[in-house]
Design a protein that fits this description.
The chain is an alpha/beta fold. It folds into three domains: 44-332, 4-Layer Sandwich (Purple Acid Phosphatase, chain A, domain 2), CATH 3.60.21.10; 342-531, Alpha-Beta Complex (5'-nucleotidase,  domain 2), CATH 3.90.780.10; 534-661, Immunoglobulin-like.
């Protein structure tokens, strides 16, 4: 093995285990899906990638998708192909229940057994502090690589190398790692330790490796967009595998001669890339798409199979690695006994996916509503905020029983709930600063979940704004002081930490949520209008009424739109439920929505209702002009949480009342109209999201599901 500037003297060898097909249940054709023969010329190198296990031995939503099966296939491929290497890309130690319990030591044992050629360190390797991270790196029997992290003295993070080489068959391969440049803000990385620019670090790594190796790869833990930037600005780099983003490419991409492949994280996909060593070009590839046939419903089809390079693999037909299965059982048995029992029944599906970055979710409302119950405050905590990145399992739960393990998988970090006194000005600064604007890999996002507060948000052209901010249903007073519940991770990385800390609860979020849910019969959290996306603001709506209906007409942002999503239109007040129209249509640059007069009058009758007509439209990419590194227009909206942009038109309440002077509220509506008291906000109370059959109805607008925009 060639010497590298960061070599620590450890002899890393690529250990290929060959599973017998009879024992492993894996024939050569099934492992590769028949895409290509495993017999290759010696002038190729094959990369099998990646790891990104989040400290899990199994998928949070389906235990049949697990590490032992995933590795059995990876190891079979590694044994079949000449010059093959298994490459990891980090975030292997956490976040998960097991990661929290064992601080990543369980995954070091597993990875030592799997013997990857190298693993690029990710941000979650540092979740438990630099000392724990160093200990885990130093007890590893394989190299961790990360080129852009340095100590205050300019040395590699102890236990890691910036780059290294390994031999696989007849090929010598150079590998380096890259981590996101936001290391200081997203994990427990010391403030005085260095984070280098990715391009500069990659250029340094390639310069050190080229001439001594046949092939150079980056085991990446940076975002999709950052990978394009690196590829386009670093010559001599053959391949980038993995990423920070968890994105699943349909096919590898090429930028400036560098192949970039991202095939998700955890146990859903496995990539195989075979390169010609003479040209550095990709000659064969496949993406294995794992699924559990036992979990498919009637009429459901397996994932993948839409291309000869996408190979569906039923995990029921894969015999897992027995050593890893035994290891997983030993680590999980005690936790299963303690936390595996149901703690509450959910009447609705709980969305713990990465949608929590992009849209308000019922689960996000539940978490933040419960956070407002911490401590013993009178008259209570005003607002709770939860960072979307702290909701981790990327899984849907229910309807049905929710276990303690489910909750800990959703909230796996050692994040303590804290309460701060914060000025209204700082609270506004926080929610506005949390918005992630376009351009960005995942589109505009509020990036938090909230309780006790509602607002409109906008994020375009690198700028953000929030409007119509209400706390407890009342306009935000920037000179007022509010009690805000959050976790210490958020407080330590935002303006919330500049307020006065009133309570350090001593309770991590996961165990706290378990305690709060135990003893409740059911929960039924849904969505309302706590965070309203506004991409375009148009002229105020005109109002016409006939006594039974009210018709609102608003101009459409014709230059910004290519069509309209009429079933998304509704009128939103500052507090309480929104109202959906009986019908909606669009023509001649106008949208028309007709409402039940009594329902709309109910909203208009409250004090200062701040009525707004909001609804979706299909964005025109040319109008917005967002481009990728190749100069092409970005398809909008890029976030999986959205299928459209949203417009807003203000609605004058006095005009609504004048137009409906002859409308008479129904008996039910008359009874309901007197329920709001001064300072109350239906749907924003500390217990709003936990109501169920035993706890009462959830008080605000129930949109159809968590995929609807909000």
């Amino acid at each position: 093995m060639a010497e590298t500037p960061d070599a620590d003297g450890t002899d890393y060898t690529l250990n290929r285990r060959s599973l017998l097909a009879a024992a492993g249940g894996l024939a050569a054709a099934s492992a590769t899906g028949g895409v290509a023969s495993a017999t290759q010329p010696s002038n190729t190198v094959t990369l099998i990638h990646d790891t990104h296990f989040h400290g899990r031995f199994e998928d949070a939503g389906d235990a049949e998708l697990n590490l032992q099966r995933y590795f059995a296939v990876a190891d079979q491929l590694r044994s079949e192909y000449d010059n093959a290497a298994f490459i990891g890309n980090g975030d292997d130690l956490a976040p998960s229940l097991l990661g929290l319990e064992y601080e990543g030591s369980h995954m070091i044992e597993a990875l030592n057994y799997m013997q990857p050629a190298a693993v690029g360190a990710g941000n979650h390797e540092f979740d438990f502090g630099i000392e724990v991270a160093q200990e885990r790196f130093q007890t590893s029997e394989f190299p961790w690589v990360i080129a852009n992290l340095l100590t205050p003295d300019g040395e590699p993070v102890p236990g890691t190398q910036r780059w290294t080489t390994f031999e696989t068959g007849s090929a010598t391969v150079g590998v380096f790692g890259l981590g996101t440049e936001s290391f200081h803000t997203i994990t427990s990385y010391p403030d005085d330790w260095q984070v280098l620019d990715n391009v500069a670090a990659a250029r340094e790594a390639v310069a050190a490796l080229e001439g001594d190796v046949d092939f150079i790869i980056c085991a990446s833990h940076i975002s999709t967009g950052a990978q394009e930037r690196v590829a386009n600005n670093v010559d001599g780099l053959d391949a980038i595998v993995g990423s920070h983003s968890g994105v699943v490419f349909d096919a590898p991409k090429t930028f400036n001669g560098t192949t970039v492949a991202e095939f998700g994280d955890e146990f859903g996909h496995l990539g195989r890339l075979t390169f010609d060593l003479e040209t550095g070009e990709l000659s064969e590839w496949e993406r294995l798409d794992f699924y559990n046939s036992a979990a498919l419903g009637d009429g459901d089809s397996p994932p993948g199979g839409d291309s000869e390079n996408h190979v569906p693999r039923d995990v029921q037909e894969i015999a897992g690695d027995e050593e890893l299965a035994s290891m997983a059982q030993a680590y999980t048995a005690e936790l299963e006994e303690q936390l595996g029992q149901p703690i509450v029944e959910s009447e609705v599906e709980l969305n713990a996916t990465y949608d929590n970055y992009a849209v308000e979710t019922g689960l996000g409302n539940l978490i933040t509503d419960l956070m407002r119950e911490v401590g013993d405050f009178e008259p209570g905590i005003d607002v709770a905020v939860q960072n979307a990145g702290g909701i981790r399992s990327n899984t849907m739960y229910g309807p049905g029983a929710i276990t303690g393990i489910n909750v800990m998988d959703i909230l796996p970090f050692p994040n303590e709930i804290e309460v701060y006194e914060l000025s209204g000005a700082k609270l506004r600064e926080y929610i506005e600063g949390s918005v992630r604007p376009m351009p960005g890999d995942f589109g505009s996002q509020p990036a938090i979940q909230v309780s006790g507060i509602s607002y409109e948000w906008w994020g375009h052209d690198g700028e953000t704004n929030v409007e119509n901010v209400f706390v407890g249903g009342e306009p935000l007073d920037e000179s007022e002081t509010y009690l805000v519940s959050t976790n210490d991770y958020v407080a330590g990385r935002s303006v919330i930490g500049e307020g006065e800390r009133i309570l350090s609860s001593g309770q991590f979020q996961g165990p706290f949520m378990i305690d709060q849910l135990e003893g409740r019969d059911t929960i039924s959290p849904t969505r309302g209008h706590r965070m309203i996306r506004v991409d375009e603001t148009v002229d105020p709506a005109t109002v016409e009424g006939d006594g039974e209906t009210i018709t609102l007409t608003a101009s459409l942002p014709t230059e910004a739109s290519e069509g309209f999503t009429l079933d998304t239109y509704r009128v939103v007040p500052r507090t309480g439920e929104s109202v959906t129209p009986e019908s909606a249509s669009a023509s001649d640059g106008m949208v028309t929505a007709t409402f039940d007069a009594a329902e709309l009058t109910e909203l208009a009758s409250m004090d200062d209702p701040t009525l707004r007509l909001v609804g979706g439209f299909d964005p025109d990419e040319e109008h917005y002009g967002y481009t990728n590194d190749e100069g092409g227009l970005v398809e909008l909206p890029p976030s999986s949480g959205y299928s459209y942009h949203q417009l807003k038109a203000s609605v004058d309440a006095e005009t609504v009342l004048a137009a409906t002077a002859t409308a008479t509220p129904t008996e039910t509506e008359t009874e309901t109209s007197g329920t709001e008291t001064s300072g109350s906000q239906p749907g924003f109370g500390a217990t709003a999201a936990v109501g169920g059959a035993a706890g009462g109805a959830y008080l605000y607008d129930r949109l159809s599901d968590d995929e609807t925009e909000g």
